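Title: Prediction job returns without error message
Component: structure pipeline
Severity: low
Priority: P3
Assignee: unassigned

Description:
Job completed but the reporter wants confirmation the result is attached to the right record. Sequence as submitted:
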Amino acid sequence: MIFGLQFMENPFMRRALELATLGRGWVSPNPMVGCVIVHDRKGEVDIPFARIIGEGWHQRYGEAHAERNAILSVRPEDTHLLPESTAYVTLEPCSHYGKQPPCADLLIERAVGRVVCCNDDPNPLVAGQGFARLRAAGIQVETGVMNELGRQLNARFFTFFEKKRPYIILKWAETTDGFLGGEGSKPVKVSGNLAHRLVHRWRSEEDGIMVGTNTACNDNPQLNTRLWPGKNPVRIVLDRNLILPADLHLFDGSQPTIVYHQSVNRSLESEPEEHNADTALFPLDYAITPSLNHTLQDLRQRGIQSVLVEGGAALLQSFMDEGVWDEMRVFRSPGLMGKGIKAPVVQGKLVSREQVGKDELSIYQPN
């Protein structure tokens, strides 16, 4: 999501940003990137004959990057225009070989006249080298165009490299009188069907989804995207004493599950086959790291760039207490519960509010 700001300044970069969003949920751990190629005769974008001759975006992880897709979309009769054209790209073109060859080399090979970007790439494998390679080849480079919107678009990617942890989204639904669960931890449906479907879309957009022991045991959630066509996230559960039964949906083998625990009497080597083979158990030494930091660092090592935390109240509050969160998404239902499990008190600044069926969705970011 891009909050509270309107696209402005450059219509071609705006288009590139719009294209980039089409890769949401499919390109991680790569960033979302869009590219628009404009024949503008040396960057004079305000003259009448400036026109788009190619565009593309990074569609799926491992497949062609945005710049390659954009260049491939240029009609054969227009390829001779590339030296008089500008490539508007939302992120610095890559300069290293991964699953795809370097995009900077492709732009040089096709003699694109100018490259305009939103953001430098924070990945140490790139980190300015793409721009340096373009400039060394005589291509004019302009950076920082609509920079803030580019950072918001790839907030997960920037958080992963700059803060060295996954991007954390706290999500819950509460009644008008501030309850998210029934008395005695009894599961209660708070939000409506449209909100539930939206949450499944959110799940498809994140790398991981996390719950605590109480939510796993009391709600027996599946934590998948059955209500939305998209990939399932990695399921993450904090089960400090390894008390969760093996017949929960979490251990049905339908998607990868990571269980973090602090049991001193059991280890990876001695763990009996009571959980599905697709479940990984990782012990935590809370005597040394008594916070969420160890868990988040381990997730980062596994390439998990974002985590949707779906409660319950104690787990959500622990993230808030440690100040480790990037978004807070709160549904408020018109219903009343009177008693039960109190929802956390929201923090941060309100950045958007909208109606989702019968529920009101408010989104907050840290101050």
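Comment from assignee: result matches the submitted record. The domain at 11-161 is CATH 3.40.140.10 (Cytidine Deaminase; domain 2).
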